Amino acid sequence: MENTMADPNTNNSSSNESTDQVGIRVENENPDDHTDAFGSVGGSSGTAAASSSSHHNNIYGSGAIGQLANGYKSPSSSYGKNVAKMVTDRHAAEYNMRHKNRGMALIFNHEHFEVPTLKSRAGTNVDCENLTRVLKQLDFEVTVYKDCRYKDIVRTIELAASQNHGDSDCILVAILSHGEMGYIYAKDTQYKLENIWSFFTANHCPSLAGKPKLFFIQACQGDRLDTGVTMQRGHTETDGDSSMSYKIPVHADFLIAYSTVPGFYSWRNTTRGSWFMQSLCAELAANGKRLDILTLLTFVSQRVAVDFESCTPDTPEMHQQKQIPCVTTMLTRILRFSDKQLVPAGRV
């Protein structure tokens, strides 16, 4: 799923770069860029791995919306039985982020795999360390799970969904792994992301109903490359009643941020981490308590799109490639990680 390339001018055994990447822009001349796909490209060089993705076709497609549509079965027999506590006024502009706790953040960090075609993901531990740090700064209770098999991931997610999140603002799940179109890899096998987030729908996890459920996915979604387009300077152009109870869709209040668009590679630097996670951590560290999440993710996309380009001269077909993240949102309000220290004690 990923291309991993060693920089001849970089000592990969050094760990002094792992904690200094947040907020630092990466220059284009470092060739430690890889993609989160599997297989090999470039013949005998052995420095790049790419994917020959399996395309799993269905009527709705294999993206976030498609998986939700294909995986969801309407609970017609339980009509009227799904009831959850109202945590936000009906037409409130922003999510209620004044609970006692910010919420759980689960990070599934995959470096080594039992699948023979999958190479180890050098650089993922840098991503994990940086993401852990910034999420703690945003008051999340962070737990990291390393190289889990699929059954262990499901068991962990099922346990998390069974908890009472009444005192929490939201929940966050990050997955750092290999991937292909519509699938992510655990240590031992592939699975659909829908198998994970379906545990947190409002009918399955009532204590998170009406609260943000955030998923960040660092993985390839295919084996296509984005060569980019050169932009040249030219001429400048200008040109109800809030107290009433209400019903929400079971899939409301989800946000899924993928590191790349469906069908394309996702790049990772072996010493500095993936382009997407570098950019996400930089934005969360700089603006996580100031900007709302969709504005913040727009600037994450800008960083990835503008500041990064693959440098793999020994593998010409992978050289000077680009990437753009892809965000699927079912959020119904503005989400901002307001500072917990400024919230009066006892307010919910």
Automatic annotation (TrEMBL):
GO terms (BP aspect): negative regulation of Toll signaling pathway; neuron remodeling; nurse cell apoptotic process; positive regulation of neuron apoptotic process; proteolysis
Domain (Caspase family p10) ranges: 244-339
Biased composition (Low complexity): 9-19
GO molecular function, a single term: cysteine-type endopeptidase activity
Gene3D superfamilies reported in the protein's UniProt record: 3.40.50.1460
A Pfam family annotated for this UniProt entry: Peptidase_C14
The Caspase family p20 domain, residue ranges: 101-224
Keyword Nucleotide-binding: no
Region (Disordered): 1-54
InterPro entries xrefs: Caspase-like_dom_sf, Caspase_cys_AS, Caspase_his_AS, Pept_C14, Pept_C14_caspase, Pept_C14_p10, Pept_C14_p20, Pept_C14A
GO cellular component: cytoplasm
Entry keyword set: Apoptosis, Hydrolase, Protease, Thiol protease, Zymogen
PROSITE patterns (UniProt xref): CASPASE_CYS, CASPASE_HIS, CASPASE_P10, CASPASE_P20
Compositionally biased tracts (Basic and acidic residues): 26-36
PANTHER family: CASPASE, CASPASE-RELATED
Similarity annotation: Belongs to the peptidase C14A family.
UniProt protein name: Caspase
